[in-house]
Amino acid sequence: MSQNRGISVLLPCHNSGDLIAEAVESVVQQPLSVPFEVIVVDDGSTDPVTLAAIENSSTHAGVRIVRLPCNRGAQAARNAGLDAAHFEYILPLDCDDRLATDEQLLETGGYLEPAVQILASRPQVAFVHTYSRMFEGFDGLTISAYPCREELLVRKHHTPMPIVYRRADALAAGGYDRRIQKWQDWAFAIDLMATRHRAGDANEIACLAGPFHEYRVHNRFSRLSTSQVSELEMTQLVVEKNLDYFRTLLGDAQSASELAAFVYGSKPDRLTDLLHMAAADLDQALTLARQRRATLTSRSDSLGIP
Questions:
Q1: Which residue, among 279, 134, 282, has the nearest Cα to 211 in the 3D structure?
Q2: Among 27, 21, 16, 302, residue whose Cα is nearest residue 164
Q3: Is the per-residue pLDDT at 222 higher than 90?
Q4: In this structure, what CATH number is given to the domain that contains residue 131?
């Protein structure tokens, strides 16, 4: 066994109030036989409640605090955690989300231990992901709860945030790109896979359905997902950085701007996402459609076309 065989959970935090306490608690409750640590990165918080919650989190065994002198953003905070990590495998987790602590899910081994085992035994796997269940403002799976594949991700399918990956791969890819202001998880996954591709490594993606990740729907403070940023511009940055990779998978006759436009235009709509979910688990897709009262309508309905 590697001397550093274990998992480091990165928890960037900026003025999140006491939500950080829930996130930390959800990690320390996971069943783990390998060593683990939780690195809470205080990204220049000024809110007294947040600062107290961060300080209190350090009372848990395995929890460390890294403090940044000012607010540098989620990507810089993740990089600070990545640099400070002691272990071979990494899980990033947003401070307002949490890992599932449902007893039945934990009895199956949870998410972290099986993910580490997959990465340790299967070098062809680039990362492991799980499904996300929403809570607080809405209860149910996200529309992207289906297995990721490399060929889908290069066409702008959603990349789940809580992926487990190798620290060495992340460092080789240069960590998290601070230029990416939104869709950061997709950008990071592409950087990771492109770097592995250049090294001659395979890019299989393993899925532990769960759902082992819980995504909080709230408006207590602004999430990156609600910020006003040009998705095409962010896509162009990622494509330009990894032009060789995109050309290999999508065709080398296209310019960076043409490839970026193609990738951006390939992002699936909700119906496409639902069909991918149905291909993986029809019952799950039907449940989600009923929860959201989803129906398929089009102009052909008024024409009486069956």
A1: 134
A2: 27
A3: no
A4: 3.90.550.10
Q: What are the angstrom distances between the C-alpha of 147 and each of 77, 81, 190, 210, 277?
A: 28, 27, 16, 12, 8
Distance, in Å, from the CA atom of 277 to the CA atom of 147, rounded to the nearest integer, reads: 8
Number of domains making up the chain: 1
Which two three-digit tokens encode residue 82?
């990545």
Amino acid identity of residue 103, one-letter, is E
Q: Answer yes or no: is 305 within a domain.
A: no
Alpha helices (H) along the chain: 19-28, 48-57, 74-84, 103-107, 112-121, 150-153, 167-172, 184-198, 231-241, 243-250, 256-265, 270-280, 282-291, 299-302
Q: What are the DSSP calls for 221-286, one per residue?
A: S--GGGS---HHHHHHHHHHHTHHHHHHHH-TTS-HHHHHHHHHHT---HHHHHHHHHHH-HHHHH
Count of other CB atoms within 10 angstroms of residue 220: 11
**Backbone phi, psi, residue 39, to 5°:** -105, 105
Residue 301 domain flag: no
Task: Please say whether the beta carbons of 99 and 26 come within 8 A.
Answer: yes
Tens digits of residue pLDDT in 108-136: 889 999 999 999 999 999 999 999 999 98
Helix axes 19-28, 48-57, angle to 10 degrees: 10
Q: Which domain holds residue 240?
A: 7-293
Q: Encode pLDDT of 240-270 as tens digits.
A: 999 999 999 998 888 999 999 999 999 999 9
Residue 300 lies in a domain: no
> Would you state the pLDDT for residue 159?
87
Give residue-wise pLDDT tens across range 21-48.
999 999 999 999 999 999 999 999 999 9
Residue 137 lies in a domain: yes
